[in-house]
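Notes to self, Zn-dependent protease with chaperone function:
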Amino acid sequence: MIAAAALAALAIISTLGAWRLNSARWATRAPHTAVLLWQALGVTWGLAATGALLAYAFEPYGKGALLGMRDFVVSAYTGGEGGTVPLDLPRVLALISGMTMLSVLIAVLVGATFQTLRARRRHRMLLALIAREDPGVPGVRVVDHPGAAAYCVPGLRSQVVVSAGTLALLSPDELRAVLAHESAHARERHDLVLLPFAALCRAMPFSGVVRGAQSSVELLIEMAADDRAREHCSPRRLATALLRFGAAAAVPTPSGALGAHTGVMARVERLISPVPILPKRFRFLVMLLAATLTVSAPLLWLLPS
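result:
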Protein backbone atom coordinates (compact mmCIF):
# COMPACT_ATOMS: atom_id res chain seq x y z
CA MET A 1 0.00 0.00 0.00
CA ILE A 2 2.98 2.33 0.51
CA ALA A 3 3.78 2.52 -3.21
CA ALA A 4 0.16 3.18 -4.15
CA ALA A 5 -0.18 5.88 -1.49
CA ALA A 6 3.10 7.54 -2.52
CA LEU A 7 2.11 7.56 -6.20
CA ALA A 8 -1.34 8.93 -5.40
CA ALA A 9 0.25 11.69 -3.31
CA LEU A 10 2.65 12.47 -6.16
CA ALA A 11 -0.26 12.73 -8.62
CA ILE A 12 -2.03 15.17 -6.29
CA ILE A 13 1.17 17.20 -5.84
CA SER A 14 1.60 17.37 -9.63
CA THR A 15 -1.98 18.56 -10.08
CA LEU A 16 -1.60 21.25 -7.41
CA GLY A 17 1.76 22.24 -8.89
CA ALA A 18 0.20 22.66 -12.34
CA TRP A 19 -2.63 24.73 -10.87
CA ARG A 20 -0.15 27.01 -9.11
CA LEU A 21 2.23 27.25 -12.06
CA ASN A 22 -0.64 28.31 -14.30
CA SER A 23 -0.79 31.62 -12.41
CA ALA A 24 2.86 31.96 -11.37
CA ARG A 25 4.20 35.39 -12.30
CA TRP A 26 7.83 34.24 -12.36
CA ALA A 27 7.18 31.93 -15.35
CA THR A 28 7.27 34.77 -17.90
CA ARG A 29 10.66 35.87 -16.50
CA ALA A 30 12.17 32.45 -17.30
CA PRO A 31 10.00 30.79 -19.98
CA HIS A 32 12.50 28.03 -20.81
CA THR A 33 12.70 27.01 -17.14
CA ALA A 34 8.92 27.18 -16.73
CA VAL A 35 8.35 24.99 -19.79
CA LEU A 36 10.78 22.43 -18.37
CA LEU A 37 8.78 22.36 -15.13
CA TRP A 38 5.52 22.01 -17.08
CA GLN A 39 6.92 18.99 -18.90
CA ALA A 40 8.04 17.41 -15.63
CA LEU A 41 4.62 17.97 -14.05
CA GLY A 42 2.84 16.44 -17.04
CA VAL A 43 5.01 13.32 -17.19
CA THR A 44 4.92 12.87 -13.42
CA TRP A 45 1.14 13.19 -13.23
CA GLY A 46 0.57 10.61 -15.98
CA LEU A 47 2.93 8.05 -14.48
CA ALA A 48 1.84 8.70 -10.89
CA ALA A 49 -1.91 8.54 -11.55
CA THR A 50 -1.73 5.30 -13.52
CA GLY A 51 0.96 3.88 -11.25
CA ALA A 52 -1.14 4.45 -8.12
CA LEU A 53 -4.00 2.38 -9.54
CA LEU A 54 -1.70 -0.40 -10.75
CA ALA A 55 0.33 -0.48 -7.53
CA TYR A 56 -2.88 -0.96 -5.57
CA ALA A 57 -4.14 -3.61 -8.00
CA PHE A 58 -0.92 -5.65 -7.83
CA GLU A 59 -0.28 -5.17 -4.10
CA PRO A 60 -0.87 -8.91 -3.39
CA TYR A 61 2.24 -9.69 -5.45
CA GLY A 62 4.32 -7.51 -3.12
CA LYS A 63 6.62 -6.30 -5.90
CA GLY A 64 5.28 -2.91 -6.86
CA ALA A 65 3.44 -1.73 -9.96
CA LEU A 66 5.92 -2.69 -12.69
CA LEU A 67 7.13 -6.07 -11.41
CA GLY A 68 3.64 -6.90 -10.17
CA MET A 69 2.32 -6.30 -13.67
CA ARG A 70 5.03 -8.56 -15.06
CA ASP A 71 4.14 -11.40 -12.67
CA PHE A 72 0.44 -10.94 -13.39
CA VAL A 73 1.01 -11.16 -17.16
CA VAL A 74 3.29 -14.19 -16.78
CA SER A 75 0.81 -16.02 -14.56
CA ALA A 76 -2.05 -15.22 -16.96
CA TYR A 77 0.01 -16.39 -19.95
CA THR A 78 1.10 -19.64 -18.29
CA GLY A 79 -2.32 -20.38 -16.86
CA GLY A 80 -1.18 -19.83 -13.29
CA GLU A 81 1.67 -22.35 -13.38
CA GLY A 82 4.08 -19.83 -11.83
CA GLY A 83 1.71 -19.23 -8.92
CA THR A 84 -1.11 -16.80 -9.48
CA VAL A 85 -2.45 -14.41 -6.84
CA PRO A 86 -6.23 -13.85 -6.82
CA LEU A 87 -7.37 -10.23 -7.03
CA ASP A 88 -10.50 -9.08 -5.23
CA LEU A 89 -13.10 -6.84 -6.86
CA PRO A 90 -11.60 -3.45 -5.80
CA ARG A 91 -8.21 -4.49 -7.17
CA VAL A 92 -9.74 -5.75 -10.41
CA LEU A 93 -11.50 -2.39 -10.83
CA ALA A 94 -8.23 -0.57 -10.08
CA LEU A 95 -6.44 -2.74 -12.66
CA ILE A 96 -9.06 -2.01 -15.33
CA SER A 97 -9.03 1.71 -14.54
CA GLY A 98 -5.23 1.94 -14.52
CA MET A 99 -4.75 0.03 -17.76
CA THR A 100 -7.55 1.98 -19.45
CA MET A 101 -6.05 5.29 -18.38
CA LEU A 102 -2.57 4.28 -19.47
CA SER A 103 -3.87 3.02 -22.83
CA VAL A 104 -5.84 6.22 -23.46
CA LEU A 105 -2.84 8.44 -22.69
CA ILE A 106 -0.60 6.45 -25.03
CA ALA A 107 -3.28 6.26 -27.74
CA VAL A 108 -4.01 10.01 -27.80
CA LEU A 109 -0.28 10.80 -27.88
CA VAL A 110 0.30 8.44 -30.81
CA GLY A 111 -2.85 9.67 -32.55
CA ALA A 112 -1.93 13.33 -32.13
CA THR A 113 1.57 12.62 -33.44
CA PHE A 114 0.32 10.91 -36.59
CA GLN A 115 -2.33 13.58 -37.19
CA THR A 116 0.25 16.36 -36.84
CA LEU A 117 2.74 14.62 -39.12
CA ARG A 118 0.04 14.05 -41.74
CA ALA A 119 -1.04 17.70 -41.62
CA ARG A 120 2.57 18.84 -42.03
CA ARG A 121 3.17 16.48 -44.93
CA ARG A 122 0.10 17.81 -46.73
CA HIS A 123 1.12 21.39 -46.08
CA ARG A 124 4.64 20.77 -47.39
CA MET A 125 3.15 19.29 -50.57
CA LEU A 126 0.98 22.40 -50.91
CA LEU A 127 3.96 24.69 -50.35
CA ALA A 128 5.90 22.83 -53.03
CA LEU A 129 3.16 23.83 -55.48
CA ILE A 130 2.36 27.41 -54.49
CA ALA A 131 5.35 28.81 -52.54
CA ARG A 132 8.32 30.55 -54.14
CA GLU A 133 11.78 31.76 -53.22
CA ASP A 134 12.45 35.47 -52.80
CA PRO A 135 15.97 36.91 -53.04
CA GLY A 136 15.06 39.46 -50.38
CA VAL A 137 14.41 36.72 -47.79
CA PRO A 138 16.78 33.84 -48.59
CA GLY A 139 15.87 30.46 -47.12
CA VAL A 140 12.24 31.50 -46.58
CA ARG A 141 9.23 30.25 -48.53
CA VAL A 142 6.94 33.02 -49.77
CA VAL A 143 3.23 32.46 -50.47
CA ASP A 144 1.44 34.97 -52.72
CA HIS A 145 -1.38 35.83 -50.36
CA PRO A 146 -2.44 39.40 -49.43
CA GLY A 147 -3.06 38.52 -45.77
CA ALA A 148 -0.42 38.73 -43.04
CA ALA A 149 1.05 35.31 -42.28
CA ALA A 150 4.34 34.09 -40.83
CA TYR A 151 4.86 30.63 -39.41
CA CYS A 152 7.22 27.70 -39.13
CA VAL A 153 6.54 24.18 -40.41
CA PRO A 154 8.68 22.08 -38.03
CA GLY A 155 10.42 18.84 -38.90
CA LEU A 156 13.78 17.41 -39.85
CA ARG A 157 13.83 20.04 -42.60
CA SER A 158 11.92 22.89 -41.02
CA GLN A 159 10.56 25.61 -43.27
CA VAL A 160 9.80 29.23 -42.41
CA VAL A 161 6.92 30.61 -44.44
CA VAL A 162 5.72 34.18 -44.93
CA SER A 163 3.05 35.68 -47.14
CA ALA A 164 3.44 38.44 -49.69
CA GLY A 165 1.14 40.49 -47.47
CA THR A 166 3.68 40.18 -44.65
CA LEU A 167 6.51 41.41 -46.89
CA ALA A 168 4.42 44.45 -47.78
CA LEU A 169 3.25 45.05 -44.20
CA LEU A 170 6.52 44.94 -42.26
CA SER A 171 9.63 47.06 -42.42
CA PRO A 172 12.95 45.26 -43.05
CA ASP A 173 13.85 45.37 -39.35
CA GLU A 174 10.42 44.08 -38.30
CA LEU A 175 10.59 41.30 -40.88
CA ARG A 176 14.05 40.32 -39.62
CA ALA A 177 12.67 40.13 -36.08
CA VAL A 178 9.72 37.92 -37.10
CA LEU A 179 11.98 35.58 -39.08
CA ALA A 180 14.33 35.27 -36.10
CA HIS A 181 11.34 34.34 -33.95
CA GLU A 182 10.18 31.64 -36.36
CA SER A 183 13.73 30.32 -36.76
CA ALA A 184 13.90 29.93 -32.98
CA HIS A 185 10.77 27.74 -33.11
CA ALA A 186 12.38 25.55 -35.76
CA ARG A 187 15.77 25.32 -34.08
CA GLU A 188 14.46 24.47 -30.60
CA ARG A 189 11.70 22.12 -31.85
CA HIS A 190 8.96 23.76 -29.82
CA ASP A 191 6.46 21.57 -31.66
CA LEU A 192 7.73 18.57 -29.67
CA VAL A 193 7.14 20.50 -26.45
CA LEU A 194 3.53 21.28 -27.37
CA LEU A 195 2.57 17.85 -28.68
CA PRO A 196 2.10 16.01 -25.32
CA PHE A 197 0.00 18.86 -23.91
CA ALA A 198 -2.21 18.92 -27.00
CA ALA A 199 -2.65 15.15 -26.69
CA LEU A 200 -3.48 15.40 -22.97
CA CYS A 201 -6.04 18.11 -23.75
CA ARG A 202 -7.72 15.75 -26.21
CA ALA A 203 -7.80 12.99 -23.63
CA MET A 204 -9.19 15.28 -20.89
CA PRO A 205 -11.03 18.18 -22.59
CA PHE A 206 -13.18 18.64 -19.48
CA SER A 207 -10.20 19.51 -17.25
CA GLY A 208 -9.60 23.20 -16.67
CA VAL A 209 -6.11 22.45 -15.34
CA VAL A 210 -5.18 20.63 -18.55
CA ARG A 211 -6.58 23.38 -20.77
CA GLY A 212 -4.76 25.97 -18.68
CA ALA A 213 -1.52 24.00 -18.99
CA GLN A 214 -1.77 23.89 -22.77
CA SER A 215 -2.49 27.63 -22.99
CA SER A 216 0.37 28.45 -20.63
CA VAL A 217 2.87 26.32 -22.52
CA GLU A 218 1.78 27.84 -25.84
CA LEU A 219 2.40 31.34 -24.49
CA LEU A 220 5.69 30.40 -22.82
CA ILE A 221 7.21 28.90 -25.96
CA GLU A 222 6.26 32.07 -27.85
CA MET A 223 8.03 34.11 -25.18
CA ALA A 224 11.00 31.74 -25.35
CA ALA A 225 11.19 32.31 -29.12
CA ASP A 226 10.92 36.06 -28.50
CA ASP A 227 13.91 35.87 -26.17
CA ARG A 228 15.96 34.05 -28.80
CA ALA A 229 14.86 36.54 -31.48
CA ARG A 230 15.84 39.63 -29.51
CA GLU A 231 19.39 38.33 -29.29
CA HIS A 232 19.60 39.18 -33.01
CA CYS A 233 17.22 42.12 -33.34
CA SER A 234 15.62 44.99 -31.48
CA PRO A 235 12.83 43.94 -29.07
CA ARG A 236 10.82 46.99 -30.10
CA ARG A 237 10.92 45.96 -33.75
CA LEU A 238 9.50 42.57 -32.84
CA ALA A 239 6.85 44.24 -30.68
CA THR A 240 5.76 46.58 -33.47
CA ALA A 241 5.67 43.65 -35.90
CA LEU A 242 3.35 41.75 -33.54
CA LEU A 243 1.10 44.80 -33.25
CA ARG A 244 0.98 45.15 -37.03
CA PHE A 245 -0.02 41.50 -37.33
CA GLY A 246 -2.81 42.05 -34.81
CA ALA A 247 -4.08 45.19 -36.55
CA ALA A 248 -3.99 43.46 -39.94
CA ALA A 249 -6.08 40.45 -38.75
CA ALA A 250 -3.33 37.90 -39.39
CA VAL A 251 -4.15 34.70 -41.25
CA PRO A 252 -4.61 31.72 -38.87
CA THR A 253 -1.62 29.42 -38.56
CA PRO A 254 -2.09 26.12 -40.46
CA SER A 255 -2.53 22.89 -38.53
CA GLY A 256 0.80 21.39 -37.47
CA ALA A 257 2.69 24.69 -37.81
CA LEU A 258 3.89 27.22 -35.23
CA GLY A 259 2.90 30.85 -35.67
CA ALA A 260 3.69 34.05 -33.82
CA HIS A 261 0.17 35.25 -32.97
CA THR A 262 -0.38 33.73 -29.49
CA GLY A 263 -0.71 36.12 -26.52
CA VAL A 264 0.27 39.16 -28.56
CA MET A 265 -0.44 41.88 -25.98
CA ALA A 266 1.28 40.07 -23.11
CA ARG A 267 4.34 39.51 -25.28
CA VAL A 268 4.38 43.10 -26.55
CA GLU A 269 4.29 44.42 -22.98
CA ARG A 270 7.10 42.03 -22.04
CA LEU A 271 9.22 43.15 -25.02
CA ILE A 272 8.68 46.88 -24.47
CA SER A 273 8.99 46.81 -20.66
CA PRO A 274 11.29 43.86 -19.90
CA VAL A 275 11.61 42.62 -16.34
CA PRO A 276 14.86 41.21 -14.92
CA ILE A 277 15.46 37.55 -15.61
CA LEU A 278 15.16 35.23 -12.63
CA PRO A 279 18.34 34.67 -10.60
CA LYS A 280 20.36 31.63 -11.58
CA ARG A 281 19.88 30.11 -8.14
CA PHE A 282 16.10 30.16 -8.47
CA ARG A 283 16.25 28.69 -11.99
CA PHE A 284 18.58 25.95 -10.75
CA LEU A 285 16.18 25.08 -7.93
CA VAL A 286 13.27 24.88 -10.39
CA MET A 287 15.25 22.61 -12.72
CA LEU A 288 16.26 20.45 -9.74
CA LEU A 289 12.59 20.17 -8.77
CA ALA A 290 11.68 19.22 -12.35
CA ALA A 291 14.37 16.53 -12.44
CA THR A 292 13.27 15.16 -9.06
CA LEU A 293 9.65 14.94 -10.18
CA THR A 294 10.58 13.26 -13.45
CA VAL A 295 12.66 10.59 -11.73
CA SER A 296 10.39 10.00 -8.73
CA ALA A 297 7.40 8.46 -10.52
CA PRO A 298 9.37 5.74 -12.39
CA LEU A 299 11.22 4.86 -9.18
CA LEU A 300 7.94 4.53 -7.29
CA TRP A 301 6.72 2.11 -9.97
CA LEU A 302 9.54 -0.16 -8.73
CA LEU A 303 8.87 0.35 -5.01
CA PRO A 304 7.66 -2.95 -3.46
CA SER A 305 4.22 -2.80 -1.88
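- The beta strands are 131-133, 140-143, 150-153, 159-163, 258-259.
- The chain has a mean pLDDT of 85.
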